[in-house]
Amino acid sequence: MAEVDPEIYGLVSSEFARQRDGIELIASENFVPLAILEAQGSILTNKYAEGYPHKKYYGGCEFVETVEEVAIRRACDLFGAEHANVQPHSGTQANMSAFFTFMNPGDTMLAMSLDQGGHLSHGHPLNFTGKLYRIVGYGVSPETETIDYEAVERLAKEHRPRVIVAGASAYPRFIDFSRFATIAAEVGAVFMVDMAHIAGLVAGKVHPSPVPHADFVTTTTHKTLRGPRGALILCKTKYAQELDRSVFPGTQGGPFMHAIAAKALCFKMAATDEFRTYAAGVVANAKKLCAALGERGFRIVSGGTDNHLILVDVKGSRNVTGRDAEKLLEDAGITVNKNMIPFDKEKPFVTSGVRLGTAAVTTRGMGEAEMERIAEIVDRVLSAPEDESLRIAVRKEIKELSEAFPLYPELLQTPSGVRAALSPLPRNS
Ligand code: DSN
Predict the structure, then answer these.
(1) Tens of pLDDT along 390-406?
(2) Which helix (H) or strand (E) is 186 found in, with range?
């Protein structure tokens, strides 16, 4: 790449340095193991394999279809599911395929509103779901900022939705899947869970699993699950054939076999004791970071966290908008994203909150002492938004902290190390 396209190589190298030298607190991001980078960058990208194992529409699929079979088996074993489709390219495409299995245009969907913590593909007006379906949103109670299950039940009885969707992008608490399933059963709705954010915590058995309760479970593979960018759908056997048709040929063509190989590795790794320890560490770190910010006077939405993420009301705590907080922290070497908080008075591009997550820092080996230090640094930066020299000094501090927990320590932390990461196979193998 360096020889063929120095421009893109330079940008990839710069991004590597950014990841290496900063603190990553975006709740949906993580660092994949090198073996997963290797699978994702492998020659499997060359292969077309439309269809499903033993029913492919191309010749030469004998190896890649076995890769897909292994990935399916491992996904089912990992989550205790009856059926898995490992082909979806993204979370939104997984949701689209699942919805198309049982929804018709004009049907009603009951899902968490985006401004209360939900996801775009659960009914935002500009998303395909908002255009095709009649959307009814539920949210959190203003008092507790946790899901208002009584309101969910009331809305379900009033609107008789075809589907009830549980799952969120910015919800720091356990979700009561059993309660959702009961409500769905009461009104004859399909129950679907999008567990993208918490999939790694479910695999690591530190978050209740939606699989026994839901008809369909979708997830991305790259967040807490620490796999390649991509997605997965789980369902009961009775829906398997319809679901598979909905993915291919319904909404996708050729599967990305390199990504499916990387998913297979991810499912194998997520089934280990080591991964369970990791998942427990993610939650312990989130609780510590949350408590340390709370002690410094930051208002935490819902008063705490049960998972990997924390929603901080920076406007209410330091009179800084989410947008400004994101920029101030970025200048200091900490990456977060601005996020609406429930009942936010600011616009979505401004927001009153930031969302923090501990999946990536835990992968780097950081623990509770580092969470305390990060909270102290966040406090210093957001308490002095006018102080640019402070942010320059903090950036050095953050680089030193990062260096103590190297990213891809297997590699030399140099541009040639980057090159090794991009071409992991020895030339003559
Ligand atoms: N955009 C992702 C997130 O950051 O939560 C969800 O797809």
Answers:
(1) 999 999 999 999 999 99
(2) helix 177-187
Q: Is 91 in the pocket of ligand 1 (CB under 6 A)?
A: yes
pTM: 0.95
Q: For a pocket test of ligand 1, which of 25, 112, 114, 119 has the largest count of ligand atoms closer than 8 A to its C-beta? A: 119
Cα–Cα distances (Å) from 397 to 141, 317, 390, 393, in that order, read: 39, 24, 11, 7
**CA-nearest residue, atom 2 of ligand 1:** 28
User: Does domain 21-32+273-403 correspond to CATH entry 3.20.20.140?
Assistant: no
> What separation in angstroms does the CA of 178 have from each of 73, 112, 214?
25, 16, 9
What pLDDT, in 10s, does the model give residues 138-174? 999 999 999 999 999 999 999 999 999 999 999 999 9
Pairing of strands 134-138, 309-313: unpaired
Highest CATH level, class, for 37-270: alpha beta
Q: What is the mean pLDDT of residues 18-26?
A: 96
Q: Exactly one of 223, 323, 355, 391 is catalytic; which is it?
A: 223
Which residue in this structure is represented by tokens 């608490």? 173
Is residue 73 among the annotated active site residues? no
Domain borders along the chain are 21-32+273-403, 37-270
Residue 50 annotated to the active site: yes
